[in-house]
Amino acid sequence: MKKVLIALSFIIFSFTAQTSCKDLPIYFESYKQAAILVRSTSFEYSQTINTPESSWIVKSSFYSCDGKKGYFLYVTQENKEYIHQDVPIEMWENYKSALSKGRFYNKYLKHKYELEIKPNHK
Q: SS3 of 83, please?
């Protein structure tokens, strides 16, 4: 009985344990896979904000392994999620204080910090 409980505890821990930053892949197979892996990873720094003042961005998050650069995720009113890679933490800090999150995103983030997708990479 004791062995069964130990085995069960190990299985439960394995499914609930978060991934380490060092275990994140360099390339992702899809944006969806990247978002899932990033959200389930333990980071040195992570922060999420709701953005009710924005006309199209509902929520934004920033995740960093080193406190310098990280992943920027945001969710639109259509419940679509987007992710950017290697965004400097200073950009996140400026984004949080921007009066218009959408304008800031379009001017400083869009097409500048693209996530690297390599489907079926080996």
A: strand
Checking if the pLDDT of 84 tops 90, the result is yes
Read off the pLDDT of residues 2-47 as tens digits, 9 standing for 90 and up.
Answer: 443 344 344 444 444 578 898 999 889 999 999 999 999 999 999 9
Distance (Å, rounded) from C-alpha 99 to C-alpha 54?
Answer: 9
Q: How far apart are CA 54 and CA 45, in angstroms?
A: 24
Q: What is the DSSP string of 12-50?
A: HHHHHPPEEGGGS-SSBS-HHHHHHHHHTEE-SEEEEEE
Q: What is d(CA 10, CA 3) in angstroms, rounded to the nearest whole number? A: 11
Continuous segment of H or E residues that includes residue 58: strand 57-64
> Which one, of 94, 91, 80, lies nearest residue 113 by Cα?
91
44-56: b (≥16 Cβ within 10 Å) or e: eebeeeebeebee
Mean pLDDT of the chain: 87
pTM for the whole thing? Answer: 0.81
Angstrom distance (rounded) from CA 35 to CA 77: 17
